[in-house]
Amino acid sequence: MSVSDAERSGMARARELGDSVLGMTSPNPPVGAVILDLDGEPVGEGATAPPGGPHAEVAALAQAGGRARGGTAVVTLEPCAHTGRTGPCADALLAAGVARVVVAVPEPTGLAGGGAERLRVAGVDVVLGVEQAEAEAGALASWLTAVREHRPFVVWKVAATLDGRVAAADGTSRWITGEHARAAVHRLRATCDAIVVGSGTALTDDPQLTVRDAGGRPAARQPLRVVIDRRGRLPATARLRDDAAPTLVSRAPDPAALLAELYDRDVRRVLLEGGPTLAAAFLRAGLVDEAVVHLAPTFLGAGVPLVGDLGISTIADALTLAIVDVIPMGRDVQLRLRPTRHTGGRHHADEGS
């Protein structure tokens, strides 16, 4: 598989474009595309629009115009061949006269598949699987999890002290981390379709769970706020019942049931912000795909633990995680991790998601 330096650079940029629309495209995948002209120069780029809008390839072709003819399209996901709310991207590439298409991830669904074959039959040179692992671990991870497991991808976010406490012995928890980490939480929320808490967190903290921009203003798009409240304890006066964002009060009995309910609502990426009991339930079920941990250089010595009982009694059964990255955030540190083994028995290290 021969790929030029320009095409590899184009793929890196395409992944960035996909990242830029994460959380805005569900249930469609967040795809990035770059058009290179005959000389390998980038002349157009695009990312998937919200549902009903143009796909990444169409947006990139519109920017490239006539310079796309004879050139190359670099795309993070195989161009679709079906007609949904928009036309087939494979046909758009053919109409533009593109001579070559370089793809990271082959289309995994039967509905949209066949794009590569349609292009090849028409004489277009198609290369599949270029930097596939990187693309699958990036913006496409949530969508791929939904395709493969018919559930949303779950990101667990938690802020804790160095000794693993999320609140002091008297229950106080604001603010464990500093303003840089708190701003990062809003950026993380913006990449998700839904934010989930339990009724305990809703009653204790009375959070609003909205997304605010760097200036503290409400973002134009707000994720669905979800409260697991099986006993109907959430009062009408709770901030989660205001009109700042949509809210779902769910009586789902377990994490799998909740995720099934959210999947049916086209949710593809969930941010779990509940307390240690809810986190433990998702971890025990093997339903945490990524953890974002904000650590403050503080000790409490006592208080509420980071996570509840996982049912693990020996070190050999420990739930292990791989560090994806470590980012200093003011006086705090952000750890992003993905489980290498779930207590539920599923392995994620080989799935690329």
How would you explain this protein's 3D organization?
With 353 residues, the protein is of the alpha/beta class. It folds into 2 domains: 5-138, 3-Layer(aba) Sandwich (Cytidine Deaminase, domain 2); 145-339, Dihydrofolate Reductase, subunit A (3-Layer(aba) Sandwich). Helices cover 26% and strands 23% of the residues. The chain is built from 10 helices and 15 strands. It has helices at 5-20, 56-64, 89-96, 115-121, 132-137, 141-149, 179-190, 199-205, 255-263, 276-284, and strands spanning 32-36, 42-47, 72-77, 100-105, 125-127, 153-161, 165-167, 194-198, 224-228, 247-250, 269-272, 290-296, 304-305, 321-329, 332-339. The strands form 3 sheets. It has an 8-stranded mixed beta sheet with strand order 10-9-8-11-6-12-15-14. Strand 3, helix 3 (89-96) and strand 4 (100-105) form a beta-alpha-beta unit. The longest helix has 16 residues, at 5-20. The radius of gyration is 22 Å and the shape is elongated. The two termini are 24 Å apart. Residues 342-353 have low confidence and may be disordered.
Radius of gyration: 22 Å
User: What is the straight-line distance between the termini?
Assistant: 24 Å
At the fourth level of CATH, the homologous superfamily of the largest domain is Dihydrofolate Reductase, subunit A
Structural class: alpha/beta
The structural domain count equals 2
Biggest β-sheet: strands ordered side by side in the sheet: 10-9-8-11-6-12-15-14
Number of distinct beta strands: 15
CATH architectural label of the largest domain: 3-Layer(aba) Sandwich
CATH topology of the largest domain: Dihydrofolate Reductase, subunit A
Residue share in helices?
25-40%
Number of helices: 10
Tell me the β content: 15-25%
What does the main sheet amount to?
8 strands, mixed
